[in-house]
Amino acid sequence: MSIDAINPIGEFKKIELPSSSEVRNNNFYQAVSSELQHVSEQYRVAEEQALTLTVGNLDDVHQVMSAINKAKLSFELVTQVRNKLLEGYQEIMKMQV
């Protein structure tokens, strides 16, 4: 896929973008994807433990609260990393070439 861009002189230029399969082969994509899956798994475990506690099959409230807090902190970390990436992208887009 290509897009039209304007260089600093004001001329139009075609820029080739990487295909989605090339992006998926990137280590960064794999790292972000695995971390998101990890956070999702932590939320699933926390939800299961909370359900088990609610039903009465689990007596350790501390274990449930620990799982919930771990999932919450992981989500907050992912959110902050996303925010920093967006800020960096916005700063790059503001740069004059």
From TrEMBL:
KW Membrane (keyword) present: no
The UniProt record lists the keyword Transit peptide: no
Signal peptide range: none
Cellular location(s): Bacterial flagellum basal body
Keywords in alphabetical order: Bacterial flagellum, Cell projection, Cilium, Flagellum
Top-rank taxon, per record: Bacteria
HAMAP family: FliE (MF_00724)
Family: Belongs to the FliE family.
Protein name: Flagellar hook-basal body complex protein FliE
Organism, scientific name: Microbulbifer epialgicus
Taxonomic path: Bacteria, Pseudomonadati, Pseudomonadota, Gammaproteobacteria, Cellvibrionales
